[in-house]
């Protein structure tokens, strides 16, 4: 169930993308939970036809899950995660363009525009008719599907995974005879999870089918032709696999962090490792990447001729291999074998294999967000206290003031300020049994769960505010009039029909829009670190 | 009690006791001064009577005497019993001083009596009141002639009983500058924008002791700073995320790790496959693999490519050492030893996950004695041993005794631009009240108005 900030944000996103009627439906679903169609009608007071159309649109865009209520009627549930992904659509199209060229961008965009599509429909929608571009598009489509950027949309993807989990777990539990032990319950849960994963994988494979003609002939050549043996199944609806695109967002963040921490060259080595393992990376929840051998990496980086530029070495003209080894040492914090060094590393180096430690990096990125928020609000002193508490655990305020070398009264003020922002929390330890507040120790510590969920709520709210503001700016009467005029077919052909004043208004609006959209994207990046990378390291405290 | 001055025998005994280092003498020792038992007994009785000596009984029930100087005697002579009691407790507290409340519980006297006694004692300039940094409100008394201890004054960080934050800030900055200058290459050494020292060619990272001596050299302050104090400053820098602390043996360890991986491409591929298999399969295949690996490794180590690399590396290290002006013999020994260790560790299986750590430890154990023998840093570990016990890392504390401590290195913060902080919402004072349709709402938020009117956004540093 979504909290109020998240619910508002989702409603706002749906409002922007689908209009106010769909937003009404979503708002009701988010505030009241699962509802059947008659209930939606009653709460929204919409006409049945309109409500049904909105629901259909939302289902088409994978925003609603179907479920069966206890009475057996069909109910709908809103898919919050899918909705938040809509903020990244622009990024996804941009990435598709970079990875697969213009055709890739077109394909991804049309699928995003329509929720899910079959491959012939895409071509029809894009208006691709001449045979040459059809081959290009088909090729790109095949690539997109085989590399998991697109995934088939199945019945499975319209049912809430939580429901399924409960159902499977129930089935497993029913098998247990007698009074279930904790271990058995845990086992049941794992079995259910594995079953879901298996089903998901099976569903993911459905996108490609073997070519009919090639089936019997040339067994020997088959290996060579393996890729061309399969074609995209025309009958299957495809949707965009956000996990795969999220991987690219994450990798960009990681490379950027390495660049800040070390230098450009170290970042390029890390980028090469990420690139080599990209096809095995499935989602952002992975703890570490597949291992890459150093020689492979050397081959990959053979064309980089200025790796030595970022290093001061004893030898005059170091080979690329030497440089890469140095960078790997740096990135893995090879000279700092302590726990601190481990936590600061990007990769792990095992004899001659390299793995990117997504888990370690993800934790660190999240921590950086927490620290930046603290710095923004409470200055460097606040960060100092926060870091101390995160490293050491619980501490008394006197002890804190001693270690951070600040006057006791300053520290106390700062501690309460940090606590009001939920960045830190207190733990009471009574000295006597009566729990008298004067005879109680108050220890401070960082409750990461609380801190992050508070920040996340604030980020949701900020995103909502930005979006609302953007809509409000658009609806200023003068701007609205100008924009409407701009959309007229005659004005579209000839900009000269606008007056100077109108043109200025339009330009100002575009400037504001650009700023707000850029801001939204950047805030969304914070959301990515907190929410998507939040799956890592959440269970350890 | 006779008030006559002490006779010659008695004053001789008194002086003799006074001249001993702790102003104490056992009953047996007094026999050497006055051998005649009766005279000795009389003299002791007289001195005890006037209060010039006091009897002490130690745990073995042996009686000894402590002499009291005439000055002390005069000072305490005209005190009444209560004042004397209070005075003795204050005296016993030494340079730590004693809080009046503790005085009250110890003496079992009434508050007013204590107050009165303290007043007279202060008037007679026997005791003084000292302020405490930790408990500014407490009344703490100590003997007039004593210097308050560090726990009362707070050490070098306090001036006039207040934490001197400016002083601390200043010193931290100097420390940071010092560490940073050694960490990042200078321009003349071929350093430019973003250039770093290679991990096999590290500069000599400073220890806390180095930083202390450089602070001393810079003559920034009159205050004497100990290594502990410098470490406090450095800890603050670590908390600020500006520097990091790493064990001094770290770089040498990296060298040895980097050295033992001369493997060909195909070999690795094969192993990779094997590893994947071995994850799912049982231990039996594991041991088999190990055997096989050993064989292949022995072949490899004989390959010429490998040898040449080691030679190269050796040469490089030699260069390093010369610049550091370490005694040649010591480094030679070290090299030899390291080489040996490498060979040893090569035979162990490096494939399993827990292995690298174990390997490191093993190497460490053999390595560090030779490390410690390097001339200049020899005395550091002894001084630092007690802090290492405090260090959070179990790794360090276990091997703390063998290492030559920790060194410090500046780091560039990998601080990502936080997109959210650019939004006016981050610092909005009425963020909690903000609500669509409310008196504060995003639609006509003044902060957004200002923000939209203000200068454009910072450029994003990269787009990939």
UniProtKB/TrEMBL annotation, chain A:
Keywords, alphabetical: DNA-directed RNA polymerase, Nucleus, Transcription
Residues covered by region (Disordered): 200-221
Cellular component terms per the entry's GO annotation: RNA polymerase III complex
Major location category of this protein: nucleus
Residue ranges of every copy of the RNA polymerase III Rpc82 C -terminal domain listed in the record: 143-321
Pfam name, any one: WHD_POLR3C
Subcellular location: Nucleus
GO terms classed as biological process: DNA-templated transcription
InterPro entries to which the protein is assigned, alphabetical: POLR3C_WHD (IPR055207), RNA_pol_III_RPC82-rel_HTH (IPR013197), RNA_pol_III_Rpc82_C (IPR008806), RPC3 (IPR039748), WH-like_DNA-bd_sf (IPR036388), WH_DNA-bd_sf (IPR036390)
Residue ranges of domain DNA-directed RNA polymerase III subunit RPC3 winged-helix in the record: 370-446
Domain (RNA polymerase III subunit RPC82-related helix-turn-helix): residue spans on this chain: 9-64
GO molecular function: single-stranded DNA binding
Purpose of the protein: DNA-dependent RNA polymerase catalyzes the transcription of DNA into RNA using the four ribonucleoside triphosphates as substrates. Specific core component of RNA polymerase III which synthesizes small RNAs, such as 5S rRNA and tRNAs.
Family: Belongs to the RNA polymerase beta chain family.
Complex formation: Component of the RNA polymerase III (Pol III) complex consisting of 17 subunits.
Record-given protein name: DNA-directed RNA polymerase III subunit RPC3
Automatic annotation (TrEMBL), chain B:
Coiled coil: none
GO biological process: transcription by RNA polymerase III
UniProt cross-references to SUPFAM superfamilies, sorted A to Z: Winged helix' DNA-binding domain
Pfam families listed in its UniProt record: RNA_pol_Rpc34
Acidic residues bias (residue ranges): 258-268
Keywords attached to this entry: DNA-directed RNA polymerase, Nucleus, Transcription
GO annotations of cellular component type: cytoplasm; nucleoplasm; RNA polymerase III complex
Presence of keyword Phosphoprotein: no
Alphabetized InterPro entries for the sequence: RNA_pol_Rpc34 (IPR007832), RNA_pol_Rpc34-like (IPR016049), WH-like_DNA-bd_sf (IPR036388), WH_DNA-bd_sf (IPR036390)
Predominant subcellular localization, coarse grouping: nucleus
Domain of life: Eukaryota
Location within or outside the cell: Nucleus
Region named Disordered: 257-401
UniProt record similarity statement: Belongs to the eukaryotic RPC34/RPC39 RNA polymerase subunit family.
PANTHER family: RNA POLYMERASE III DNA DIRECTED , 39KD SUBUNIT-RELATED
Record-given protein name: DNA-directed RNA polymerase III subunit RPC6
Organism: Agaricus bisporus var. burnettii (strain JB137-S8 / ATCC MYA-4627 / FGSC 10392)
């Amino acid at each position: 169930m979504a909290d109020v900030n998240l619910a508002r944000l989702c409603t706002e996103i749906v409002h922007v993308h689908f209009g106010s009627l769909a937003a009404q439906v979503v708002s009701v679903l988010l505030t009241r939970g699962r509802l059947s169609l008659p209930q939606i009608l009653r709460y929204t007071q919409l006409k049945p036809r309109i409500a049904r159309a909105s629901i259909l649109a939302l289902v088409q865009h994978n925003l609603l899950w179907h479920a069966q209520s206890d009475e057996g009627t069909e109910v709908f549930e809103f898919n919050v995660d899918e909705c938040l992904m809509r903020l990244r659509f622009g990024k996804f199209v941009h990435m598709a363009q970079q990875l697969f060229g213009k055709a890739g961008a077109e394909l991804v965009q049309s699928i995003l525009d329509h929720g899910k599509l079959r491959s012939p429909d895409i071509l029809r929608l894009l208006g691709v008719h001449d045979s040459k571009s059809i081959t290009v598009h088909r090729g790109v489509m095949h690539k997109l599907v085989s590399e998991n950027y697109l995934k088939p949309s199945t019945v499975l993807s319209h049912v809430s995974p939580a429901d399924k989990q409960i159902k499977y777990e129930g089935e497993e539990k029913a098998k247990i005879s007698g009074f279930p032990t904790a271990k058995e319950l845990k086992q049941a849960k794992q079995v259910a999870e594995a079953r879901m994963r298996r089903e998901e994988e099976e569903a993911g494979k459905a996108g490609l089918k073997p070519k009919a003609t090639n089936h019997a002939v040339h067994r020997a050549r088959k290996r060579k032709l393996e890729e061309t043996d399969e074609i995209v199944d025309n009958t299957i609806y495809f949707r965009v696999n956000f996990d795969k695109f999220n991987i690219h967002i994450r990798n960009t963040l990681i490379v950027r962090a390495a660049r800040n921490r070390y230098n450009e060259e170290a970042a390029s080595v890390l980028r090469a490792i990420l690139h080599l393992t990209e096809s095995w990376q499935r989602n952002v929840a992975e703890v570490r990447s597949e291992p890459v051998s150093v020689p492979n990496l050397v081959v990959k980086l053979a064309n980089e001729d200025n790796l030595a530029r970022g290093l001061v070495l004893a030898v005059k003209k170091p080979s690329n291999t030497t440089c890469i080894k140095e960078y790997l040492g740096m990135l893995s914090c090879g000279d700092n074998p302590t726990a601190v060094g481990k936590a600061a590393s990007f990769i792990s180096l095992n004899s001659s294999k390299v793995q990117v430690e997504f888990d370690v990096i993800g934790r660190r990125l999240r921590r950086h967000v927490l620290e930046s928020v603290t710095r923004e609000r409470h200055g460097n002193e606040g960060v100092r206290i926060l870091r101390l508490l995160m490293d050491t655990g619980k501490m008394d305020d006197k002890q804190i003031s001693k270690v951070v070398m600040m006057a006791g009264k300053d520290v106390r003020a700062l501690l309460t300020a940090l606590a009001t922002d939920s960045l830190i929390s207190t733990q009471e330890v009574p000295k006597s049994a009566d729990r008298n507040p004067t005879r109680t120790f108050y220890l401070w510590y960082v409750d990461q769960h609380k801190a992050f969920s508070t920040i996340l709520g604030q980020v949701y709210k900020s995103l909502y505010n930005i979006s609302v503001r953007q809509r409000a700016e658009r609806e200023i009467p003068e701007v609205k009039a100008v924009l409407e005029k701009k959309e007229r077919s005659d004005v579209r052909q000839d900009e000269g029909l606008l007056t100077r004043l109108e043109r200025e208004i339009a330009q100002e609006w575009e400037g504001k829009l650009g700023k707000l959209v850029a801001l939204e994207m950047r805030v969304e990046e914070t959301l990515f670190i907190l929410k998507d990378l939040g799956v890592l390291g959440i269970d350890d405290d | 009690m006779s008030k006559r001055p002490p006779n010659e025998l008695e004053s001789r005994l008194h002086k003799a006791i006074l001249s001993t280092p702790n102003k104490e003498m056992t009953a047996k020792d007094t026999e050497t001064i006055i051998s005649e038992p009766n005279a000795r007994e009389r003299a002791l009785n007289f001195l005890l009577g006037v209060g010039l000596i006091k009897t002490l009984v130690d745990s073995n029930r042996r009686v000894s005497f402590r002499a009291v100087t005439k000055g002390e005697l005069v000072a305490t002579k005209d005190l009444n019993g209560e004042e004397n009691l209070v005075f003795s407790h204050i005296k016993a507290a030494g340079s730590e001083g004693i809080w009046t409340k503790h005085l009250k519980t110890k003496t079992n006297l009434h508050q007013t009596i204590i107050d009165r006694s303290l007043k007279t004692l202060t008037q007679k300039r026997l005791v003084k009141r000292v302020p405490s940094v930790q408990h500014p409100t407490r009344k703490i008394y100590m003997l007039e002639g004593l210097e308050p201890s560090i726990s009362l004054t707070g050490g070098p960080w306090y001036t006039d009983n207040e934490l001197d934050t400016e002083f601390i800030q200043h010193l931290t900055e100097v420390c940071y500058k010092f560490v940073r200058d050694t960490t990042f290459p200078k321009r003349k050494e071929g350093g430019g924008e973003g250039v770093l020292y290679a991990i096999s060619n590290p500069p000599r990272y400073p220890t806390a002791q180095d930083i202390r001596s450089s602070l001393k050299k810079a003559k920034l302050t009159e205050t004497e700073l100990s290594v502990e104090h410098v470490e406090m400053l450095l800890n603050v820098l670590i908390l600020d995320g500006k520097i990091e602390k790493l064990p001094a043996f770290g770089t040498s360890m990296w060298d040895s790790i980097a050295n033992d991986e001369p493997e060909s491409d195909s070999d690795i591929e094969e192993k990779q496959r094997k590893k994947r298999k071995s994850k799912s399969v049982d231990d039996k295949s594991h041991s088999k693999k190990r055997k096989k690996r050993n064989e292949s490794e022995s072949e490899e180590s004989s390959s010429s490519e490998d040898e040449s690399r080691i030679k190269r590396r050796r040469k490089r290290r030699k260069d390093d050492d010369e610049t550091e002006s370490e005694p040649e013999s010591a480094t030679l020994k070290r090299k030899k030893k390291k080489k040996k260790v490498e060979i040893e560790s090569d035979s162990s299986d490096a494939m399993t996950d827990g292995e690298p750590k174990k390997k490191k430890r093993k190497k460490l154990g053999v390595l560090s004695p030779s490390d410690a023998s390097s001339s200049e840093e020899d005395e550091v570990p002894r001084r630092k041993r007690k802090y290492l016990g405090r260090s959070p890392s179990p790794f360090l504390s276990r091997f703390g005794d063998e290492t030559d401590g920790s060194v410090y290195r500046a780091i560039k913060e990998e601080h990502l631009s936080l997109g959210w902080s650019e939004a006016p919402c981050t610092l909005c004072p009425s963020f909690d009240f903000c609500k669509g349709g409310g008196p504060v709402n995003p639609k006509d938020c003044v902060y957004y108005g200002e923000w939209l009117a203000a200068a454009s956004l910072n450029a994003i540093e990269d787009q990939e």
